[in-house]
Amino acid sequence: MALTAAEVRRRALAPFTDKAGTFAPLKAATFALLAAPGVWLGWAYTTDNLGGFPLKALLNETGLWGIRFIVLTLAVTPLRRTLQWPKLVTLRRMIGIAAFVYSAVHLWIYVPYMAYDLGRIGSEIVLRLYLLVGTLAVLAMVPLTVTSTDMMVKRLGGARWRRLHQLVYAVGILAMLHFYLLLAKLQTPEAQILAGLLIWLLAYRLLYAWRGTMPTPWLVILSVGAAILTMAAEAAFYGISSAGRIPVSAVLGANFSLESGIRPAWVILALGLGVTLVGWVRLKISPPKERRRGPQLEAAD
Ligand code: HEM
User: Which residue has a Cα nearest atom 42 of ligand 1?
Assistant: First the structure.
């Protein structure tokens, strides 16, 4: 069916407007922020500003932005609920699509990176676990992206659509596993911070699905628990990657001294408690008017 000129215009302006077609500054700013790394990478690549191994830099950068945006997509619902900021939901689709685009480009760059040798690419994917789980993550994002339109929500029906979109949790776990299996990369605190955030966000879902609510004391317990798990994951990583040469006690000890900087577990604790505090203040200033919809209806949120 051919699209009318008005429909083409509406779709082209969708990242900048609300459903009524009015300019939406929050959406427009989010769109600009999501597109900025891509624009910068495109510019740096075409002007030879990506260092000695531009394709490798492009591969790593698109992967990093892919996982950052996957985690951000998962953060939308907990933030919307905790901060009582319903408008955030209008950004979720855009962030999810950006996560898919960066991850798909990351996979696509792997092809020239492997000198277009499709046979070798296939065998690498099958034989290397980190590539296999990464590929499964990208594949799982395809149905989520294809069904992200309003028309597909209507066609599938709310309950089925939400059930399908629970796949996003698997995407988060698979993508993080891909990142974690690249053991050498995890020396960067960002990997541990992203893993800690994922733990917080998935545990939030489990608790909310169980009780259908998330009172402030639970958010505090969740943040402390996620920080402890982040610390444990960091100790396990260093223990495994150094084949036991770095003892667990040394990593745990580093978390209680500033010698090796602020450790990821403290970042998770600070972020979790920060969101909890802002949510608590919002709750005191303006208690919610609308009753919660319940865990069933928000299953895939
Ligand atoms: C949702 C899917 C994926 C995400 C979020 C993702 C994310 C990442 C991240 C964060 C890195 C590390 C970048 C760095 O620290 O510099 C990375 C590296 C890499 N990824 Fe992915 N990735 C995904 C899927 C894939 C797929 C499907 C492939 C190929 C089949 C792939 C191939 C690679 C390769 C070759 C590296 C570099 C490994 C190295 O430096 O030795 N990724 N990816």
Answer: 134
